[in-house]
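Here is the promised in-class demo. Please do not try to memorize the tokens; focus on the logic of going from shape to residues.
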């Protein structure tokens, strides 16, 4: 069956405004949207630009908007959309570089700000860390983040305030704070203890809805808020005593 693809196009070199271009294609119903747009690029328009890599929902490169929903093109099949026309757009909240490719630098900069790696307070033991499984269960969901930027693109706060760190970065910080191997001092939390950090979140849970790996970033933000409030309370009680 022929399917109409309506794909947003933009080429800054041509100095043209973003616009939609229509394509007619006949992909296999079980093909992913990624395979379908690759077919369009290979057979109809070699200038069509988009990102992809693993094609197995691991790298997060092919995040885009398909029929109004932020998702991964490699894990969305043609038949799952149950419609004869498919509209494809780039991720919102990020500047379009060309067609479906957006500038991910603001997202990566947010992640870099919170230092998304272990900061141990001492040298690891020679035999390695032995961690209670229950403690790792607290952070398992956040480890699954693939840095696709879907939550950042869906966040209403990021859309109106470019200073906001975004859901992924805040949830990732919570992941490391709760990791028993991490020893970053509480003073490190100051980078997020403000309106551009965890207090800027509107708590509308859009980030939870769009995450392809069910990370639920809003849960991490709420957890981080509890951690900071508890730390401040302990500090205040210590001063009074």
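The designed amino acids, position by position:
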């Amino acid at each position: 069956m022929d399917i109409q693809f309506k794909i947003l196009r933009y080429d800054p070199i041509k100095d043209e405004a973003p616009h939609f271009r229509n394509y007619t294609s006949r992909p296999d119903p079980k093909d992913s949207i990624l395979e379908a747009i690759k077919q369009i690029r290979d057979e109809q328009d070699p200038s069509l630009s988009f990102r992809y890599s693993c094609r197995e929902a691991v790298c997060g490169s092919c995040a885009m908007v398909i029929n109004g929903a932020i998702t991964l093109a490699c894990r969305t099949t043609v038949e799952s959309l149950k419609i004869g026309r498919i509209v494809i757009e780039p991720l919102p909240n990020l500047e379009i570089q060309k067609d479906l490719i957006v500038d991910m630098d603001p997202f990566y900069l947010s992640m870099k700000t919170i230092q998304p790696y272990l900061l141990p307070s001492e040298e690891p033991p020679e035999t390695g860390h032995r961690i209670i499984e229950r403690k790792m269960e607290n952070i398992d969901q956040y480890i699954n983040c693939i840095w696709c930027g879907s939550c950042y693109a869906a966040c209403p706060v990021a859309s109106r305030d470019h200073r906001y760190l975004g859901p992924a970065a805040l949830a990732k910080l919570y992941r490391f704070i709760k990791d028993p191997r991490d020893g970053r001092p509480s003073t490190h939390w100051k980078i997020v203890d403000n309106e551009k950090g965890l207090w800027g979140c509107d708590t509308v849970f859009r980030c939870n809805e769009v995450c392809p790996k069910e990370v639920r970033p809003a849960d991490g933000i709420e957890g981080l808020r509890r951690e900071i409030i508890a730390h401040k309370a302990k500090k205040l009680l210590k001063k009074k005593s």
